[in-house]
Amino acid sequence: MNKTLGIGIAGLGTVGQGFIKQLKSFKAGSKKAANIKVISVAVKNLRKKRNISTPSLPMTNNTMSLANNSEIDIVIELIGGSSGIAYKLVKKALSNGKHVITANKALLAMHGNELAKLAEKTNVSLNFEAAIAGGVPVVKAIRENLRFNSIRKVYGILNGTCNYILTKMENNEGSYQFVLNEAQKKGFAELDPTFDIQGIDAAHKITLLSCLAFDIPVNFKSTYVEGITKIDNYDFEYANELGYTIKLLSVATKSKDKIQQRVHTCFVKLSSEIAKVENETNAVVIEDSVIGRNMLIGPGAGAGPTGASVMSDLMDIVRETKNYPLGVSINKKKIMKIAKIEDLFFAYYLRISALDKAGVMAKISKALSKRKISIKSIIQKPSNKSSFAEIILITHKIKEALLISAIKQIKILPEVSSSVKFIRIEDSL
Question: Which of 85-89, 218-222, 254-258 has the lowest mean pLDDT?
Fold first, then answer.
């Protein structure tokens, strides 16, 4: 390619600075990089101190100017957020026939169908490797390779903040709140960690992977989302005693005419590969009918890994490698029913705080047996509450709606405290 490609970068935070560093390094060692020129860098605060030298960068605080600048061929959106200026910029850039690279999973989870359709209409690229799992090349793996192998399941750990917190809790390094505070101090968690700890960030990502893997439209509203805020150190103690650990898993599966898209904490066997993924590391497992099982693992965030994914997307445009943003044309996406969580079947960990006296277990068992919920194992532990005991039950697989019904009955028993916890068990991973 002899033409010089002009790029405009929106946002100069952690990812933006990481990308700029790599771009400078790349230009020093490659003739092809001479075809890339930074035309403009849009930031909110021109005077803000940053970790890179900025005097030589053509800075502006007019973000929308990137979409209208005739010298810019590629807009790289690193602002974040599902609406506002990020959405306006990307939509306008695509409308004006500019390629777009984004690390914004929230934007794509909410507006992916619209933006992909617009990119197809104007015949430009919409690349987003950096939006999912940082430096792990899972978007390209699914969109350009494995999707032809009849993928049946995609699952994994897609949020490094939650995995870091759960790892520290499992290692008995503090309570949930203590570990969260430490994660914030070290930069592994945002000052407002809501999107992470409530599972929303991971849900954005699995929604996009489901779309790519199963050729369905982006449908975030139908993704079941549950975070890690209810987990405490006792849950890890009991899980380990039973041969499990606890992970926040993102899961998408396809069976016949139904799709599952869900994010929630799970008991996973200590011997499983996914149980060994620790701290801020991300991992994605792809199961298909040709290869079987692929596991991609690596750093899920940070300037280096995410900046490298942006660079990879840029090189695809430089090489004129073009793909449908969502795997196939938006007009060829199949509408499929996404199952509700209450209609799915799981084995469960149940933790019930109840008075330590005769007859209580019989009442709990009755509520379960009435709904044909069979118990696989029982552990009783002393409670830190006087005269109470912790009853730990592992059930066989049952429809979730039936378990919820049983829990409602158990919670109104006079001998039971209002605290009845359940965690789904994924034995097949």
Answer: 254-258
